[in-house]
Amino acid sequence: MSNKNLAVEAVRGLAALAVIFSHASLTFWPYLHGDFDQLRSGFERWVFNSPFGFVYSGSGAVCVFFVLSGFVLGRSVLGRDGLLQALPGMVVRRYFRLMLPILISCLLAWAVFAFALPRVDRHALGEWIRLFGAFDFSLGNAVEQGSVDTILWGAADYNWALWTMRIEFFGSLLVYALAALLDRWPRPDWLLPVAALGCLLLVPGNGVYYALFVFGLWLAAGEWTVDNRVLALSSLLAGLYLVGYHEASSSYNFIERNLDLSWRGEPLANYDLANELGGMLIVGAVLKSPWLGQRLSGRAMAWLGRMSFSAYLLHMLVLATVAPLVFNALRPTLSYTGASLSSLAASVAAIYLCSLPYARWVDDTSIHVSRTVSRLVWRR
Question: For this protein, what is any one GO molecular function term (predicted)?
């Protein structure tokens, strides 16, 4: 595997870990996400006001995921012969690639909601995790959401992390379509900027996320590299700083006081802008800098990347079960912070232990099944 491929896996794996930490902080330390009535220790105040919020920035990680998907998918299809004719099979392949792991995660969630959560005491943790699973769930509804509603309509009742899957699917289709047009468009240099602008203008709410896919495709199409180490490292650090943005954090007060932008008459949230720009800078710096890519090309990072999709799909279930069980067992003898950190460590270990068989038997299987179904569709 090339250094660039390993760097992709590293960024993907670290982004998934940031999502886990983001949801863990909502579980144990809601103060870190702006719920200021829930301060439990000075530790939380220090973390919130530090410039290290990128460690638990789920919003920034999502932006990184979307740019990465644009890059990876674009690189896999750019320059491919007969791309336009192959689009139907590629759409089917992408659907089944995402749907099968999503479906199994929804079925697991139904089983956890039905048989495990009623026995787990979550009252000492944040309201966010206490509300997980608190709806009229059913096996049939889990199958419906996992197979159709999540990807086509963004349903995420059984796994709140699945709200991104609709954008992931349609963003993938956008990349395929644009890649097919690049060789045929009379002004290819203009196609991607116009497409990104079109996303912002024509897609309400989530347009900027689709523009991130276009940016990833632009990175894949460009042959340039960032050979200046200072520039590459500065871009990476700036990106990390931005995705840690919180309006009330003292590390971002200067930006919040002095930056007030609007778009089409509506004010733009600095939080959203920071995460989107930060995600672009992080991916661009790592994937376009041979030096940074080499720094992130170790086996551990590659393994983390391989587990990332499985960990992303499973972590909510672990946080709702393992986390409170460990916390409740340790709380009588440890401080709140000590019990929380110990529970977080146990939860992360459990997430990746569960991800090992899931990656092998579900994620890898979905790759093979999606290829088979795509070939059948293509032959027709």
Answer: hydrolase activity
